[in-house]
Amino acid sequence: MNREVVSSMKTASEAMKTANKGVGVDDINKLMDDIQEQREIAEELTNAISAPSSGSSELDDDELMAELQQLEQQDKVPQAAEPSLQLPEPVRDPLPADGAKKKKKQKDDEDLEKLQAWLA
């Protein structure tokens, strides 16, 4: 069992040597310095972007406000004239009598009988 443990440790040691070949502490330190430098540059850029511009900010705000007011004036819809509340007079003609409905029903029944006779 000890032999297997020692063999595994030897294999792990050789794997670590292979993985670390060509990479030294100086290389890692240089890499970390480069990363830190890039972080600082990114932070400076973020600060520059988020900082208010000097002096021209008020002028730009005034120009933007004037443009906004102009656009709002263009968007205003002229008010339509008041709608007329005069409605047409209702039709006062009498409704058709039930007789007209009965005649229509009779005609439909006759047509149906003719159709049934023709099919028979």
TrEMBL record:
Extract the ranges annotated as region (Disordered): 1-21, 71-120
Keyword list, A-Z: Endosome
Q: What is its main location?
A: other
Subcellular localization: Endosome
Q: Which GO terms describe its biological process?
A: late endosome to vacuole transport via multivesicular body sorting pathway; vesicle budding from membrane
Segments passing through the bilayer: none
Q: Name one GO cellular component term.
A: cytoplasmic side of plasma membrane
Q: Which family does it belong to?
A: Belongs to the SNF7 family.
Protein name per UniProt: Charged multivesicular body protein 4b
Species this protein is from: Macrostomum lignano
> Lineage, please?
Eukaryota, Metazoa, Spiralia, Lophotrochozoa, Platyhelminthes
